[in-house]
Every structure is written in structure tokens, then in C-alpha cells.
Write a structure and sequence with these properties.
Length: 132
Amino acid sequence: MAQSQNSTVDLATPATCLMGLTSHGNVMVGNKAFEYYNERNPEDYIQIPWDEVDYIAAEVLRGTKKITRFAIFTKDNGHFTFSTRDDKETLRAVRKYVDEDKLVRSPDFIDVTTKGAKSIPAAIKSLFHRDS
């Protein structure tokens, strides 16, 4: 079993880790790290120190303020996606340790397709552009 990096815990809540095969466990937000522990396998855990967090992207449903999941992007080890029982409460606890400008809204399907559609004319123009 892994030893916690935190000396104090602000929030502990049930969570799902959405990396590859999903696993269920608990998330702990503490003074030194964001930690996830699998409830069935004590050797399956994720510990992300606050100084390793690059930014956190939350997926917010369009037209509502409901957060369905969030991803923590690290400086060296990629990203980790989680969904907790109350994602808003979890991100409020994280906000105490991560700067406000590092908490961003993830683009949804409509944002991505709109940006892609707007880039089509420039791509077509570049196909027929001649250098003189």
C-alpha cells in the first residue's frame, strides 16, 4: 500500500479514474498532492504533487454548469482523467492549491467542430497559393 504524501486532507471522495480501463476508488485532495487510490487494488494509485500540475481542464456541459469530468495535465507524465461524486466540490478544493489561471474549461464537441470549419477556407487558400 502506498504512503500518502499529504499531512492534512481537505477532501476525500469516491471517484472513477478514466485512464484505459476505468477503476473505482477514492480521491484525496491534501496540502501536498492530489491522490487517487483504487479501492480493490492497493498497489494501483496515482499521486500528483501540486508543483507537477501544469493545468486542469474541466469538461462542462453546454448550457449548464454541470462538470462531468476533469483532467489533470502534468509537466512530465501526461494527463490523468477523473470523475468524482461531486466534481465542482473537488475542483473547489483543488483551487486552494492550483492557481486560478491553471483551471480551464475544456472545449466541447461544438467548439472543436466550429474551429475546424473556420479553418477550412485558409487551408483551401494555401493549396492554391503561388510563391512569386
